[in-house]
Specification:
This protein has about 150 residues and is an alpha/beta fold. The protein is built from seven helices and six strands, in the order αβαββααβαββαα. The longest helix has 20 residues, at about 130-149.
Length: about 150
């Protein structure tokens, strides 16, 4: 499998930034205009977190807050798992499963480099399906042989 660096090379540069003091309604409008489900929260080039559709539904709507008065910093996610540029797509799969998240934060020497989404990893698996499925078939065949003998 490829690395986080390889996956980020195939993605456009991060452009979906929002300031932590922006109102949630502004974040929703920006997400709609860029057709993404998350925004990277930055201020003065400092990474602060991620604001996603899930944050909106669980931390604004379900709590009865108003998107026109609530700020992004009040509801953004700051505790997502992090990966390095050398980590593999396989490791990303494990982190998605373990942490039940849709986003991983990629850093290189404490510098934010991008977001790996569950869809990035799905695309990676589809593009390399021969490797993925061959390994699974080989493992299943090996397990079956162990049971027979």
């Amino acid at each position: 499998m490829r690395t986080v660096a390889n996956i980020l090379q195939n993605k456009p540069p991060v452009f979906n930034f929002i300031d932590p003091d922006a109102k949630v309604i502004e974040a929703l409008q920006l997400m709609n205009s860029v057709n993404l489900s998350y925004l990277v929260v930055k201020h003065n080039n400092d990474f602060h977190g991620i604001f996603s559709e899930r944050d909106y539904s669980r931390k604004v709507v379900l709590k009865g807050l108003h998107s026109s008065t609530c700020t992004v910093k009040d509801v953004m996610n700051t505790s997502l798992p992090m990966v390095t540029m050398q980590d593999t797509a396989e490791m990303c799969m494990q982190l998605f499963s373990t942490h039940k998240t849709r986003y991983l934060l990629a850093f290189d020497q404490n510098v934010f480099k991008g977001v790996i989404t569950i869809y990035d990893i799905l695309r990676e698996a589809i593009e390399n399906k021969e490797m993925v499925f061959d390994k699974l078939a080989l493992q299943a065949f090996s397990d079956m042989q162990d049971k027979i003998y």
